[in-house]
Amino acid sequence: MSEITPAIVAEHGLSPEEYERVLHALGREPNRTELGIFSVMWSEHCSYKSSRLHLKKLPTSGPQVICGPGENAGVVDIGDGQAAIFKMESHNHPSYIEPYQGAATGVGGILRDVFTMGARPVANLNALRFGRPDHPKMRHLIAGVVHGIGGYGNCVGVPTVGGEVNFHAAYDGNILVNAMTVGVAETDKIFYSAASGIGNSIVYVGSKTGRDGIHGATMASADFGEDSDEKRPTVQVGDPFTEKLLIEACLELMASDAIVAIQDMGAAGLTSSSVEMASKGGVGIELDMNAVPCRETGMTPYEMMLSESQERMLMVLKPGREDFAEAIFRKWELDFAVIGHVTDTGRMVLTFNGETVCDIPLGPLADDAPLYDRPHVKTEVPALPANLPDSIDLAADLLTLMGSPDLASRRWIWEQYDHMVGADTVQRPGGDAAVVRVHGTEKGIAISTDCTPRYCYADPFEGGKQAVAECWRNLTAVGAKPLATTDCMNFGNPQRPEIMGQFVGCIEGMAEACTALDFPIVSGNVSLYNETKNEDGSGSAILPTPAIGGIGLLADWKRSVGIGFKDRGDIILLVGARKGHLGQSLWLRELHGLDGREAGPPPTVDLAAERKTGDYVRAGIEQGWITACHDVSDGGVAVAIAEMALAGNCGALIDGATPFGLAGSYFAEDQGLYLVTVHDPALLGFLAGAQANGIEAEPIGRTIANRIIFECETGDHCVTLDALRAAHEGFFPTLMGADAALA
């Protein structure tokens, strides 16, 4: 009787049609090890079989791009013989099943993607999405994820400098944990993963292999059912102290000429790392499974190849350099083993106990993996509700918004992260973008993560545009020239045409924005099947969440500006065109209960105006005219003013007109807007420059003492900074309680 039954094929996540392709590729039936290798390499998580057709629409090149998608991370030139290397990835399913280890190993994995290429990591960020705060599991998930991120990042010695957090019922059964790392390398010391040199040694370094994480990639390529807790063994276990040793050992070896190619063991572990190295190099690979360092007894080749144990790397070394490399890794108390060699066969061959246990052509595993053009339907954009209400009490509405889950202070989160380790963080969490000094230089790298999922749900195309534009805007707001982006595409089941339509729409919107803003995407990750099965078998999907992580460059980090008002008496200006668009605003959701399609279309993004306005704001910062800057986003102009006031502990007197009523003028989330402050002597020059460039710039008030006063035609609306701070800072401590260690 056949060892491989239809049930076993289904357990490995392969469809009957895909199994037929396996039979055709091999010309015979696979054994269990071979089936396992096909299953992880053809999983959605590794092969991008539903997404890579559309990912080709994204712009990925530019004069600043050294390496685009296809390697472990993207690489861009930052001048002076230096490069920034960065990427964002998801660890969603593991973090829902086991939040501490899921989040921690997400951080560890993205760190390895970056230092694998020769960069010393300088900053971590995260983009988190949780369900309803009052959901029974949510406190446990929030505490576990936050502690996992802090526990790993703090121990490994890389500052966590920024991120974002959203709450929505759509994430009740499937939270999102996206991790981003940025590193700096010398441009002549960048390492790639393509194996070469027939006969060269293949070397395993780092931690030993265990049984944790087996089938992690397959699990990440399926939606959740009632058995989610049973998938706990598929979650990896991390050790940040070993990761720190691995970083130092790899960077020490990289300072020599010993390495031909290097790849971290991430999703699908030894399988994906060896297959990717060999297929990129157009060579074959032979591995002796008896030589793989194991921490558990009796491990089989199947378990060794599919394990996702953490803190492991695979290298190809130059001939005769094995002893030199081994001495470095032994010094750092890490495992080192020659486990195979490069061949000219174009095949993956595994031996164990003197027998061949796997012999697979590499082509079908990698480049010829399944590729699907999934049916997709365009999202019908909802109409704006008729007879929208107006605000009656501007101050009361502002207090409600400032204390709402999506706008409340994240201090409770980021104070658990070490954001100053390394002593190069010059703009801390809480602003539009973090700024990290390039060590030993005057340069600064600005970093931000952005996405507004409710916009993407209502209109994927505009939502995709907006995610890119807001990231570009946040980098601009600190004075940085935006360079490039990474993405993390979080969506539901691609076999549902409406979900695939969301993906396609977001990709096309992102592509248009990246092109218009010269902001290419150089790396990224796709995470599909982020949904939970209901009792009737239907799927409950997350909101479409194409998270964007961007970096920008400051020639002199000391010229960057923050969001906090600096001095009393400064003039506050609104730069850009107000339109009063309330659709999909947090004001409609939090004050009037209009959510989802009930809240109408999202605001549109005029990319030409976005580019022109942002370039002028950046020039004003460089000129020294602007003393504080903040882009207008969630909550509109009123929330942006309040955030600037709290950050600078300085109030504001706002006497601007209300052409769209109170709500439309102060809570609309119009795009391409900035609030800036200038000293009196700079006002005329700033206004003249704006007029010459065809940019709207409207003085709307001045900074004052300890309150915000909105002077309106219908009367004044006043709120104290103390009241705002109490509302803004209270949400997370109240939610998590005095003892937040609930993980």
Give the low-pLDDT segments. 227-232, 738-743
> What is the fold-level CATH name, i.e. the topology of the domain at 191-367?
Phosphoribosyl-aminoimidazole Synthetase, Chain A, domain 2
- What is the percentage of strand-forming residues? 15-25%
Shape: globular
For the termini, the CA-CA separation is 47 Å
What is the tally of helical segments?
Answer: 25
In spatial order, strands of the major sheet run 8-10-7-11-9-12-13
Q: Structural class from helices and strands?
A: alpha+beta
> What Rg do the Cα atoms give?
26 Å
- What does the main sheet amount to? 7 strands, mixed
In CATH, the homologous superfamily of the domain at 191-367 goes by the name PurM-like C-terminal domain
* Strand runs, count: 28
Structural commentary:
- With 743 residues, the chain is α+β, with helices and mostly antiparallel strands.
- Among the domains are: 177 residues, PurM-like C-terminal domain (Phosphoribosyl-aminoimidazole Synthetase, Chain A, domain 2, Alpha-Beta Complex), CATH 3.90.650.10; 176 residues, Alpha-Beta Complex (Phosphoribosyl-aminoimidazole Synthetase, Chain A, domain 2).
- It is 35% helix and 24% strand.
- The protein has a seven-stranded mixed β-sheet with strand order 8-10-7-11-9-12-13. Strands 23-25-22-26-24-27-28 form a seven-stranded mixed β-sheet, sandwiched between helices.
- The chain is globular.
- The chain starts with 5 loop residues before the first helix and ends in a 7-residue tail after the last helix.
Short description:
35% of the residues lie in helices and 24% in strands. The chain has 743 residues and is α+β, with helices and mostly antiparallel strands. Among the domains are: 191-367, Alpha-Beta Complex (Phosphoribosyl-aminoimidazole Synthetase, Chain A, domain 2), CATH 3.90.650; 561-736, PurM-like C-terminal domain (Phosphoribosyl-aminoimidazole Synthetase, Chain A, domain 2).
